Amino acid sequence: MHTSHSRYQDVESLPGVVAGLVTVGVLTVAFGLLALGVPFFWVAFPIGFGGVLPLAVGLAKRREDADGRNRAGAAESGTGSDRALHRLRERYAAGELSDAAFERRLERLLATEDGIDQGIDSDAGIGPKRGRE
User: Are residues 46 and 30 in contact, defined by beta-carbon separation less than 8 angstroms?
Assistant: First the structure.
């Protein structure tokens, strides 16, 4: 259901789905009260859209952010060479490594099955930071 190139990607996210469900619920309640002849049916709109909707979307975003952090933490807690590769990419993105230094270290890291046993993790930035190259 969730595709990376979908033009409706925001609706497929958890906050988008929650917003849609709350909207349908508020409209159902409000128009149901109207059909029943309740004179203050309109109160459902400010309560639903002014209170329930922002609260529900905020909680959904919080849950989605927590899930994203858990996935990122799981990726970082992988094997030693995965951590070394992750740190190498972070240092390159932060501008701590030149293109040539990044490519050289990346080739050395990928050339070995286990970069930590070969001492490559210190070159990839795990441990004390070294000077800018």
Answer: no
